[in-house]
Design brief:
Layout (H helix, E strand, L loop, with lengths): L7 H9 L4 E2 L7 E18 L6 E7 L2 E2 L3 E2 L16 E14 L4 E6 L21 E2 L1 H4 L31 H12 L7 E6 L5 E8 L5 E6 L11 H15 L9 E3 L5 E3 L19 E6 L10 H17 L8 E3 L2 E3 L2 E3 L11 H4 L2 H10 L29 H10 L2 E4 L4 E4 L4 E9 L9 E7 L5 E6 L2 E5 L2 E3 L9 E9 L5 E7 L2 E7 L49 E6 L5 E6 L3 E3 L2 E3 L2 E8 L2 E6 L2 E6 L1 E5 L3 E4 L8 E3 L1 E7 L2 E9 H6 L10 H19 L13 E2 L10 H7 L1 H9 L3 E5 L2 E2 L4 E2 L43 E2 H9 L4 H8 L4 E4 L7
Parallel strand pairs: 8-13, 11-14, 11-17, 12-14, 19-27, 28-40, 43-44
Antiparallel strand pairs: 1-7, 2-6, 2-7, 3-4, 3-5, 3-6, 9-10, 12-13, 15-16, 18-20, 20-25, 21-24, 21-26, 22-23, 22-25, 26-27, 28-39, 29-32, 29-36, 30-31, 30-35, 32-33, 33-34, 35-38, 36-37, 38-39, 41-42, 41-45
Helix pairs in contact: 5-7, 10-12, 10-13, 10-14
């Protein structure tokens, strides 16, 4: 890589492509005129230093424009000494340059003014946006093969050129990342030339897989720009390909203000771009035309962005509801550029709306609008009247406010009930390397009974005056810190401060009941007599017939397929664990797929292979690589390879499963919870029978996905809902039966005043269909249908509970003629 711009060889090369070169012998502020024939559309400048003091004014319609200050662009490559791109509103022939920086080289840009060759642009409200190909938007493909040469410093440990006495920090950081995560930098199918044998200036490389979708802005304002958007795309292409010397544009896609999408980097699917320094392999870059520190993106541009993100997520099999571990950071799969490196991109108005964009994309609501934040107050630097960098005054405030430290996730004003336990999280961005359990921020409480615990290494640690690092952190690494707050048992307003983030808890209402012991409690003394329901003496629940072979336990067990999205998993237990029958000490373990087997490793040591079963003594096991709060489970976690994918199955006692069932939180009436505990247990037990398997041929009974089975949240849900635990324990083992058969106890959220029969829903041969005939549901009148409408409604059960009916009466109404029995081997005969 050569940056010595004063060499005669480089000077002749510049002359050969029409580039003007200036070198003065003194460093004084000067002003010089330049004339161009043919006219130019824009320019950037190359210099020999990292500091630039140059400004440009152009003559437009015989009037001189305001002076535009140039800055060095270091975001894309810290070794590249090229200024930002200036694009004029129309072609110009005369400009002036003033400043002290010498020598410098002018890199003028001339672009085609031909219209788009494909006239049906991708503008909503068309059914589907169209991506303009490079041929359609007029990419000059000759730039792929000829032009000024350079090389990006994030490619394979590039050594700085002679112009750098010391390696910049960002280059060192990139080299360190390459050493720590070499597999994340490995591309494949490196292509040096096209089919005709012409050599690419920038060889084509392809990512083995894509994990991140990165959103950028071009920082070229569109407000008041008379140029067609396609001309800005062509200018950016030439700026990246020639002025930076890459040989192509760095973005994979671009989107203009009208919602038109453009194909960027040549090569097609999985091609590695140059949009994010040291983060290009495994990611795709999408650039929005505009400067969104100064202006808001129009609705068509946001809608096309959401459509494209959704399309790319489907193409590259990206789970939008999970998080990604990338270069040591835990990130959502859709990020802004500044989540990866220190930059202001993609601008304030886009970065602050990314959560809304992610939500819309995940829901598939691509036409949804976003609500933009209020403008930040402007920051005035009284120590230096001239602007010292390209950052606007707004950007300086943004930089000060949001680079490192603690950031809240969700609302900081929370309403709760006395005695309630709340799970919540904060985001922390590290400014330097941090060791595990090192102090991250101070903690202050307004009351001594505010008890705060933090999840560290799979266990809850009580916090006193400081938030702690859950694991070692690198510089600029982002981590989600998960905590649980146990509120006092009396009403009041409480303040919790973590760093400079203040949480206010408004505690009022009925005090939550204490969680009962995890044993079967006696029946409630004040339970109402049941009508037409058979109450049998309680027996110790045992395994029903027809289930897969399981370990011998004192009650039925269920196997739940966990929707874990990754190809490897990290698990942690602070206590000893049993692995395939062998007891080993606790700690952190890694599960990976190897051919058709799971392998379990502790560091680099192989512990088990094949079907791996892990049972903690604790008895809670944490899947630490699953970036969601509901990642802690009782019982056994089993690893299998199913359909060539790593599959995790949680095997646990049926009652423990019910305790973690995230169907009826403590905001609901207690008797409604009891009714749903019985219905949910019945539903699960029905499908645990061999003749009614929900997932025939699979080694599990159910799923944690409510779209196909029931919503299961594990230990996190049960800890946050002690009243639900009591509802489960007060109904332990109870299921609904008809003529000796466990019914398929369907339930749903709400209806419009009556339930529906299975026949109305098109459910043929539904067992015990006479139980599920349509019934009046006046407690739901005025509501809309939410769910299938068969069986018990949530709104009806809640309404009846508020009228004073108990769970048994509620169940009798929705499932007439059923029997309430304890789940035993006999109940399945």
């Amino acid at each position: 890589m050569h940056n010595c711009m004063c060499s005669s060889r480089f000077f002749l090369a510049l002359l050969s492509v029409g580039i003007v070169f200036l070198m003065t012998g003194t460093i004084i502020s000067s002003e010089k005129d330049y004339f161009f024939d043919p006219p130019i559309d824009g320019l950037s400048m190359g210099v020999e230093t990292d500091v630039i003091d140059l400004a440009v004014s152009a003559q437009i319609d015989k009037l001189w424009s305001a002076w535009s200050t140039l800055e060095i662009e270091k975001e894309f490559d810290p070794l590249l000494r090229e200024s930002n791109l200036l694009l004029f509103p129309k072609p110009i022939s005369h400009l002036r340059i003033r400043g002290k920086t010498t020598p410098y080289v002018l890199h003028p840009i001339r672009i085609s003014h031909e219209p788009i060759r494909y006239t049906i642009a991708a503008r909503l409200p068309l059914q589907k946006p169209h991506i303009l190909s490079r041929i359609q938007w007029g990419a000059d493909e000759s730039l792929l093969f000829t032009g000024r040469e350079t090389q990006r410093s994030d490619v394979n440990h590039t050594t700085p050129s002679n112009g750098f006495e010391e390696i910049p920090d960002r280059v060192k950081e990139c080299e360190e990342l390459q050493k720590r995560f070499p597999q994340e930098f490995r591309s494949h199918d490196r292509t040096l030339q096209d089919p005709e044998g012409k050599r690419y200036r920038w060889p084509l490389e392809f990512s083995p897989s894509v994990h991140l979708l990165v959103v950028h802005h071009t920082a070229l304002a569109i407000s008041g720009d008379p140029r067609p958007p396609v001309e800005r795309v062509r200018a950016l292409y030439q700026y990246h390909a020639n002025n930076r010397g890459w040989g192509d544009i760095g973005y994979n896609f671009l989107i203009d203000e009208e919602g038109q999408i453009y194909e960027g980097r040549a090569g097609g699917d999985f091609v590695v771009g140059g949009h994010a320094y040291c983060h290009n392999v495994g990611s795709m870059g999408i650039a929005l035309l505009g400067n969104f520190d100064q202006e808001k993106p129009p609705l068509p541009q946001i809608q096309s962005l959401q459509w494209l993100l959704r399309e790319l997520a489907e193409k590259y099999d990206i789970n939008l509801q999970s998080r990604v571990r990338f270069h040591g950071k835990t990130l959502p799969p859709i990020v802004g550029h500044q989540a990866l490196v220190s930059t202001d991109c993609p601008g304030y108005y886009v970065y602050e709306t990314l959560d809304q964009i992610r939500h819309n994309v995940t829901k598939g609501d691509i036409k949804a609008a976003v609500v933009f934040p209020e403008p930040l107050r402007k920051y005035v630097d009284h120590t230096d009247k001239r602007r010292t960098s390209r950052m606007s005054q707004i950007n300086l405030v943004q930089k000060i406010q949001r680079k490192y430290g603690i950031f809240p996730i969700g609302s900081t004003k929370i309403s709760a009930r006395p005695g309630q336990s709340l799970a919540f999280s904060v985001r922390f961005v590290s400014e330097a390397e941090i060791q595990e359990r090192q102090r991250l921020a101070s903690i202050q409480r307004s009351h001594k009974d505010l008890i705060l615990t933090q999840e560290i290494a799979g266990a809850d640690s009580r916090l006193r005056d400081a938030l702690l690092a859950p694991h070692p952190l690198q510089r600029n690494e982002e981590v989600i810190v998960r905590m649980t707050l146990h509120l006092p048992e009396h009403e009041g307003s409480y303040l919790l401060t973590i760093g400079d983030v203040k949480y206010v808890f408004d505690v009022s209402g009925r005090r939550l009941r204490k969680t009962a012991p995890r044993s079967l409690p006696p029946e409630k003394k004040n339970e109402r007599p049941q009508k037409n329901l058979i109450r049998l003496p309680q027996k110790t629940p045992t395994l029903p017939k027809g289930l897969p072979i399981r370990p011998a336990v004192g009650e039925p067990t269920i196997r739940i397929h966990l929707s874990y999205p990754h190809s490897a998993a990290t698990l942690a237990s602070p206590s000893s664990i049993t692995i395939n029958g062998e007891v080993v000490s606790g700690g952190e373990f890694i599960l990976q797929k190897k051919e058709d087997s799971c392998v379990l490793l502790r560091k680099d040591t192989l512990i088990a292979k094949g079907i791996v079963r892990i049972t903690p003594k604790n008895p809670v096991l944490t899947i630490t690589s699953w970036d969601r709060s509901a990642n802690r489970f009782r019982g056994t976690v089993e690893c299998r390879i199913i359909d060539a994918k790593l599959t995790l199955i949680n095997e646990l006692a049926l009652e423990d499963y019910l305790a973690g069932l995230a169907e009826e939180p403590d905001s609901q009436p207690y008797e409604k919870q009891r009714a749903f505990a019985i219905a949910a247990r019945t539903y699960a037990a029905h499908y645990m029978q061999e003749q009614y398997r929900k997932f025939p041929g699979m080694p599990y009974d159910g799923s944690d996905n409510p779209a196909e089975f029931q919503a299961y949240g594990g230990v996190v849900f049960e800890e946050a809902n002690p009243q639900w635990i009591q509802a489960v324990q007060s109904t332990a083992g109870k299921v609904l039966m008809k003529d000796g058969e466990i019914i398929r106890a369907a339930y749903f959220s709400s209806d419009d005043g009556r339930t529906r029969s299975p026949q109305e829903r098109g459910w043929q041969n539904f067992p015990s269909a006479e139980v599920f005939v349509s019934k009046p549901d006046p407690w739901c009148k005025g509501l809309s249908m939410h769910g299938h409408g068969v069986g018990m409604s949530g709104c009806g059960a809640g309404g009846q509970a508020r009228e004073g009916k108990n769970a048994e009466e509620i169940l009798e109404y929705y499932y007439p003629g059923i029997e309430l029995r304890i789940l035993t081997p006999e109940t399945n005969q």
